[in-house]
């Protein structure tokens, strides 16, 4: 019987064991059953031998050795281990090692400014910060111990210990993300989040034991840690990660050499690759399909990829609070104009602006995920009121707007708030505005996502100057001392005043609409 309300539920997910460790889930079974299988290949040059090759047994031992080293250094259960490293294999070893020890791993972007890093370290109450040689901060908050690259080698040399006997609801990792207001906030995930990712294996990845998945992300991106490492390893597959200079055509050369069955990337990577290499059928001949997430992929881009390779690409919609939970996949391609359906085991609804009763099928509203979902966060770090406010009865309200068809297909309709998408990262406008407002030449400022062409948008700063408009270079340099590079506006636009509601709220969308109208005049 077709649903009459916008609620999609195909039954509960497989129950997670009560005693569960995310790192053990990713590594232990493969180490025991297929110890010599190549689980991770790291390439720095498509024309040379790989720089690193790790078997399942080697990864398992290395992660448990890191756990032992962290415990010897004084790590206690539940303490936070922050990671600030480049695109190096030590990053996932430290991430899974901290979880294996019973700590909480906190991956941070290597692009964070000193100001941002100091904030998140203080906010999380970090016990350790693991850094690459070129990522060492100028100063650390009191109580944070630094583990440099040379120290990490000693950590890795410890005799391995068993995985911590954590419970499924114990915390495992903490991810910082921009909110709709103020500073970045930590999203705390339980050990069970690793188990919940099994719902993606069939309904998005279509992954099989023995597959090779090539991921275009860096080690320090959560998209890579999950889709690129954790899930292939747990599913009995292997991963190829590129750690060399960025070149849009590199993915075709790597595909030619290694023959991956699955390619995972953000839409921008697909776009750049198609521009660099118009003929892709030969290098991607072993590929079954591509995967994409992080930002919306335009239908034209997906069609261009399929035309160039002869292979489909499957999109997923997700969020920091629950990872990807709506997707297309090999067994159920998306209906045109939709981003797929909720994965089997998910319970998803479309809610009205207020209340927790799902809307009728076809009506636009707030996309919501059931609090029963094992992949849903434990909460926002040290923000109980904000966590409580995100729920309405059973439902976690995502901040996305969508409509549901009678077959469960989801049409994504954008954000309900002012969050922006920058290179696959969600960025809160207030965070950027606070940093820019410190510039002496700025009287008022508002930032918003500005479409520039087709599927490309940039962060734009609309500035009411004190007197003369500061130069773009001056504004950019000011922003870069306070913000990660992906948060720095790409457009600087002088305006006479900021449009506001009667209550004083800035109308960011009105700024964008006015600017685009002026450009057309």
Explain briefly what this protein structure is.
The chain is α/β, with parallel strands linked by helices.
Describe this structure in words.
With 521 residues, this protein is α/β, with parallel strands linked by helices. The protein has a domain at 420-520: GMP Synthetase, Chain A, domain 3. Helix content is 29%, strand content 26%. It has 15 helices and 27 strands. The strands form 6 sheets. The chain has a 9-stranded mixed β-sheet with strand order 3-2-11-10-12-13-14-15-16, with helices on both faces. β13 (289-292), α11 (299-309) and β14 form a beta-alpha-beta unit. α1 (22-33) packs parallel to α8, α2 (56-72) crosses α5 (149-156) and α10 crosses α11. The longest helix is centred in the N-terminal third of the chain and has 17 residues, at 56-72. The chain is globular, with a radius of gyration of 23 Å. The model has no long low-confidence stretch (mean pLDDT 92).
């Amino acid at each position: 019987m077709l649903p009459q309300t916008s609620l999609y539920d195909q039954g509960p997910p497989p129950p997670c064991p009560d005693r569960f460790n995310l790192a053990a889930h990713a590594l232990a079974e493969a180490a025991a059953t297929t110890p010599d299988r190549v689980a991770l290949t790291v390439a720095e040059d498509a024309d040379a031998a790989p720089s690193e090759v790790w078997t399942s047994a080697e990864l398992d031992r290395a992660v448990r050795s890191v756990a032992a080293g962290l415990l010897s250094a004084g790590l206690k259960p539940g303490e936070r281990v922050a990671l600030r490293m480049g695109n190096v294999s030590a990053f996932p070893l430290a991430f899974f090692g901290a979880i294996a020890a019973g700590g909480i791993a906190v991956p941070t972007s290597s692009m964070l400014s000193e100001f941002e890093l100091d904030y998140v370290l203080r906010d999380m109450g970090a016990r350790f910060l693991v850094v690459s040689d070129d990522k060492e901060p100028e100063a650390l908050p009191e109580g944070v111990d630094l583990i440099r690259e040379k120290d990490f080698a000693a950590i890795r040399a410890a005799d391995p210990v068993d995985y911590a006997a954590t419970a499924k609801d114990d915390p495992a990792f903490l991810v910082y993300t921009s909110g709709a207001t103020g500073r970045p906030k930590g999203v705390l995930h339980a050990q069970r989040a690793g188990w919940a990712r099994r719902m993606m294996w069939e309904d998005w990845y279509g992954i099989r034991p023995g597959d090779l998945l090539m991921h275009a992300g860096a080690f320090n991106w959560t998209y890579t840690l999950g889709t690129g490492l954790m899930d292939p390893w747990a599913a009995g597959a292997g991963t190829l990660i590129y750690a060399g200079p960025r070149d849009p055509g590199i993915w075709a050369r790597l595909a030619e050499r290694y023959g991956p069955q699955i390619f995972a990337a953000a839409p921008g990577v697909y776009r750049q690759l198609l521009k660099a290499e118009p003929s892709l059928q030969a290098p991607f001949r072993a590929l079954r399909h591509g995967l994409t997430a992080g930002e919306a992929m335009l239908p034209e881009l997906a069609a261009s990829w399929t035309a160039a390779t002869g292979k489909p690409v499957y999109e997923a919609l997700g969020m920091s609070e629950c990872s990807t939970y709506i997707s297309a996949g090999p067994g159920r391609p998306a209906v045109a104009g939709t981003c797929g359906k909720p994965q089997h085991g998910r319970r998803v609804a479309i809610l009205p602006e207020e209340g927790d009763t799902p809307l009728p099928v076809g009506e636009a509203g707030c996309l919501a995920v059931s609090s029963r979902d094992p992949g849903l966060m434990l909460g926002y770090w040290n923000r109980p009121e904000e966590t409580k406010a995100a729920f309405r009865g059973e439902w976690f309200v995502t901040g996305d707007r969508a409509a549901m068809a009678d077959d469960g297909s989801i049409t994504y309709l954008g954000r309900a708030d002012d969050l922006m998408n920058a290179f696959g990262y969600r960025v809160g406008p207030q965070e950027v505005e606070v940093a820019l407002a410190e510039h002496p030449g700025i009287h008022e400022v508002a930032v918003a996502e500005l479409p520039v062409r087709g599927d490309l948008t940039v962060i734009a700063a609309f500035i009411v100057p004190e007197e003369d408009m500061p130069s773009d270079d001056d504004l950019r340099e000011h922003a870069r001392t306070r913000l990660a590079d992906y948060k720095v506006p790409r457009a600087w636009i002088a305006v006479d005043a900021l449009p506001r509601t009667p209550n004083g709220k800035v109308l960011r969308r009105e700024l964008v609409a006015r600017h685009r109208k002026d450009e057309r005049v």
